[in-house]
Write a structure and sequence with these properties.
Elements (H helix, E strand, L loop, with lengths): L9 E6 L2 H13 L4 E6 L8 H12 L4 E4 L7 H6 L1 H29 L2 E6 L12 H21 L4 E8 L8 H4 L2 H10 L8 H12 L10 E4 L8
Helix pairs in contact: 4-5
Bound molecules: NADP nicotinamide-adenine-dinucleotide phosphate.
């Protein structure tokens, strides 16, 4: 988000951690953003999405771009033993995304413009025993985004997804910081290391820019070549 900062950029950040969102907002203001609004909510509560999005459209006057980036890895082993846990992963990663995207798609159709980017994952491409519930939720996001993009293209709305491989964040660090994780990253990622969050931000910025005016329905893989490794 830092790289989107300009004297004309008005952000609205949505997250459930009040301290974190306030710190990010302050950082963006310090860097020169025009304004930063925040909205604290648990996105699992889909009944509250419409209120948040209506507030966003009012505060921002016009929504040019939306990025949907929340997600949980979940506990694969626990989810294999308990359907409710599997359903919770699917709800956070897929159902709540469908809810947000549906509202945004209707809003963008009303203004006849808009750019939507959703973060999926390479895990959505293939079923791995280590994370197939998470992978299924991301695969569903990919199918949804692709279908929606073909529907919205005639309304001047671009819909794409960025599919990261391993990224060194809170989600993956518990694995990546182990010896086995480091060995796996060195062997499975041709570039030889996991991505930084900044390296995932680059393609998102590209999608947000005029350079991507003719791109819709794409899944941009950002994985250091790891998909090539089978
Ligand atoms: N890290 C990877 O290797 C990797 C690879 C492929 C794709 N991805 C995807 O990249 C995106 C960003 O993940 P990350 O790597 O940055 O992991 P992260 O550090 O764990 O960030 C995930 C974010 O989603 C938020 N979130 C989860 N459930 C939420 C809910 N119900 N309501 C509101 N916010 C919620 C979390 O909020 P809290 O901080 O409050 O928990 C956290 O800020 C996710 O969609 C993830 O699936 C990550």
């Amino acid at each position: 988000m830092r790289r989107l900062v300009s004297p004309t950029t008005h952000f609205m950040l949505v997250a459930r951690n009040s301290d974190r969102i306030t710190a990010v907002a302050q950082d963006l203001i310090t860097r020169g953003a025009l304004a930063v609004d925040t909205w604290v909510m648990d996105l699992d509560d889909t009944t509250a999405h419409a209120e948040m999005l209506a507030a966003a459209s009012e505060r921002l006057t016009k929504i040019d771009m939306a990025l949907i980036a929340h997600g949980v890895l979940g506990d694969q082993h626990a989810a294999e033993a308990d359907f409710e846990l599997a359903a919770a992963i699917l709800h956070t990663n897929f159902i709540s995304t469908v809810s947000l995207v549906t509202w945004l798609a209707n809003y963008f159709q009303g203004q006849r413009s808009g750019t939507l980017a959703v973060i999926s994952s390479v895990a959505g491409d293939r079923g791995r025993k280590s994370n197939y519930v998470y992978g299924a939720s991301k695969g569903a996001v990919v199918s949804f985004v692709k279908g929606l993009s073909t529907e919205l293209a005639r309304h001047n709305i671009l819909v794409n997804s960025v599919a990261p491989g391993w990224v060194a964040t809170d989600m993956s660090n518990p694995v990546l910081e182990t010896k086995a994780g480091q060995k796996m990253a060195a062997a499975a990622i041709p570039i030889g290391r996991p991505a930084t969050a900044e390296e995932i931000a680059g393609p998102i910025l590209f999608l947000a820019s005029d350079l991507a005016n003719f791109i819709t329905g794409e899944i941009i893989n950002v994985n250091g070549g790891s998909v090539l490794c089978g």
